[in-house]
Specification:
Helix content: 25-40%
Distance between the termini: 23 Å
Number of helices: 17
Bound molecules: alpha-D-glucopyranose, calcium ion
Number of domains: 3
Family: Belongs to the glycosyl hydrolase 13 family.
Mean pLDDT: 97
Number of strands: 20
Radius of gyration: 23 Å
Protein name: Alpha-glucosidase
Structural class: alpha/beta
Strand order of the largest sheet: 11-10-9-5-2-1-13-12
GO molecular function, one term: alpha-amylase activity
CATH topology of the largest domain: TIM Barrel
CATH class of the largest domain: Alpha Beta
CATH superfamily of the largest domain: Glycosidases
InterPro entries: GH, GH13_cat_dom, Glyco_hydro_b, O16G_dom_2
Keywords: Glycosidase, Hydrolase
Largest sheet: 8 strands, parallel
Length: 549
């Protein structure tokens, strides 16, 4: 498992969603000076890499995932000087800086697009994907991810442009070498400013079939049909990623993690197998609704094995249960009521016991939970609004439509960070841009900071353990059979060190099989530390234990 860029294996990444992390000027919107003021929290946790969701200039149709200036900072988030100060302070603390690169599409307010749409023969006319109308209508039946057609008509050109996401996110035309060069030189510019890595957004869609055939997938309630199988993971996309690697990633030794729209181990390996020279690791994306409806501990265990087998010889893994596109992990996979604390710790202990680079999403380290807003108007996420709309079109009642939106909404993960029990959770002195979860009086960082048995302290211990244990950071993985789908056993070994962990992924008790119980193992960590720790092989609900054997 040796790799050229070994330092990537020692990262523990913390993802900040800047809009919701810390407001510094009372406008209700998190910002870069706010992040700077909270670096002590990250240092206390012990992480060594910070992934910032997009902070570039953006009209915020999709909260920064619609960029109108790649070499500028969003006004609401501060200035380039603020970014420089944040980057310098991170480096001083030994924290790498990872930027979120959104290059499948830009904003429709990007100067390239403003020019591109004016005529068919301006210098930027081929920076986006333009097609003539077909029989007076859209070029094909493709749906946009956020609802409606993937095509938008522009009278000035008498043509449609293609947008996989919202109509304010036109797809960039990667078939155009001039566009590719613009992107590569922009990336180079950021690297020279001190960026250590990139998380590359929606990267499996870069290449499109130039004839744009109709999609045969069943239509959405609004009549349009997803084109995913036609545009996902095409060989042309891999060629563009390799260009990116040759031009920027390899020469500058930057860490890279691609967001790939697949959970299939073999498919993911095509992006991260080291021989292919594409990414260091991949973040698999599955739509929240699919994850909610299909996940199970059994499937997770199988996925862990498959992902491991696919890359153990020649690759690496990004490990996460949460990000800004998913429900809160303790609400989705754990139990955010009676087993809130132990299940949050169990999830953390399971994830950090796996091979790969762990990713912690803001608020996860204090067990933040999902939030159901009472009205659809309270939501900001375009996905939630579209889900609501599609359900209404399909004939559901507003109540049912709202429930569906509440369940899948990405706002579950985007409510402001809960720092303390003061008004607005210490996030802002103004009116927060998105409602704060009322449970902040109980669930907040201040409460947990000095409590040795808190979820926060569990994360701290796990991160420290990963730094001191080569078995965790480099070791092989074995998944001994436990006879139960919900009882996970993970064995990690490296150079004579062996860690064995058990995770009861269930609200029912579970027994470690006698043959697996370590004879003279030292307990390193237990999810029941507040209750006195590990008491024997009869595991309690969501009990997790890590042994050194
Ligand atoms: C990625 C991002 C998501 C965004 C989408 C479009 O999936 O994680 O937040 O909406 O790409 O950029
Ligand atoms: Ca602010």
């Amino acid at each position: 498992m040796e790799q050229k860029k070994d330092w990537v294996k020692d990262l523990i990444v913390y993802q900040v969603y800047p809009r919701s992390f810390q407001d510094s000027n009372g406008d209700g919107i998190g910002d870069i000076p706010g992040i700077l003021s909270r670096l002590d929290h990250l240092s206390a946790l012990g992480i060594n890499a910070l992934w910032l969701s997009p902070v570039f200039r953006s009209p915020n149709d999709d909260n920064g995932y619609d960029i109108s200036g790649y070499r500028e900072i969003m006004d609401e988030f501060g200035t380039m000087e603020d970014w420089d100060a944040l980057c310098a302070e991170c480096h001083k603390r030994g924290i790498k800086v990872i930027m979120d690169l959104v290059v499948n599409h830009s904003s429709d307010e990007h100067p390239w697009f403003l020019e591109s749409k004016t005529s068919r023969d301006n210098p930027k006319s081929d920076y986006y994907i333009w097609r003539d109308p077909k029989n007076g209508k859209e070029p094909n039946n493709w749906a946009s991810v956020f609802g409606g057609s993937a095509w938008e008509f522009v009278p000035e050109r008498g043509q449609y442009y293609y947008h996989l996401f919202s109509k304010k996110q036109p797809d960039l035309n990667w078939a155009n070498p001039a566009l590719r060069e613009e992107i590569f030189s922009m990336m180079e510019w950021w690297v020279k400013k001190g960026v250590d890595g990139f998380r590359v957004d929606a990267i499996s869609y870069l290449d499109k079939p130039q004839d744009f055939p109709d999609s045969a997938e069943p239509p959405q309630p609004d009549g349009y049909s997803f084109s995913s199988s036609l545009i996902n993971g095409r060989p042309g996309t891999h060629a563009y990623i390799r260009d990116m690697n040759r031009r920027v990633f390899s020469p500058y030794n930057v860490m890279t993690v691609g967001e790939v729209a697949s959970k299939d181990a073999e498919e993911l390996a095509r992006y991260v197998n080291t021989d292919r020279e594409e990414f260091d690791m991949a973040i698999p994306f599955v739509a929240p609704i699919v994850e909610i409806n299909t996940w199970s501990p059994k499937k997770m265990k199988q996925d862990i094995q498959n992902d491991y087998d696919a890359l153990k010889e020649n690759g690496w893994w990004a490990r996460f249960f949460s990000n800004h596109d998913k429900p809160r992990q303790v609400s989705l996979y754990g139990n955010d009521k009676e087993y809130w604390e132990v299940s949050a710790k169990m999830l953390a202990m399971l994830l950090h016991s796996l091979p790969g680079t762990p990713f912690v999403y803001q608020g996860e380290e204090i067990g933040m939970t999902n939030m159901r807003f009472p009205y659809i108007e309270d939501y900001n996420d375009p996905d939630a609004k579209n889900t609501y709309h599609q359900h209404i079109l399909a004939g559901d009642t507003p109540d049912v439509a709202l429930k569906e939106a509440q369940m899948i909404s990405r706002d579950n993960a985007r409510t402001p960070m809960q720092w303390n029990a003061t008004e607005n959770a210490g996030f802002t002195t103004g009116k927060p841009w998105l409602g704060i979860n009322p449970n902040y009086t109980k669930i907040n960082a201040e409460n947990q900071k000095n409590d040795p048995h808190s979820i926060f302290s569990c994360y701290k211990a796990l991160i420290a353990l990963r730094k001191s244990s080569p078995a965790l950071s480099r070791g092989d993985l074995e998944i001994p059979e436990t006879g139960s789908d919900t009882l996970f056993a993970l064995k990690r070994s490296y150079n004579g060190e062996t860690l064995l962990s058990f995770h009861n992924f269930s609200a029912e008790p579970s027994k470690i099989p006698a043959a697996l119980v370590p004879q003279n193992g030292e307990v390193l960590l237990s999810s029941y530390d507040r209750e006195g720790g590990y008491t024997g092989p009869n595991l309690r609900p969501y009990e997790s234990v890590i042994f050194r054997v």
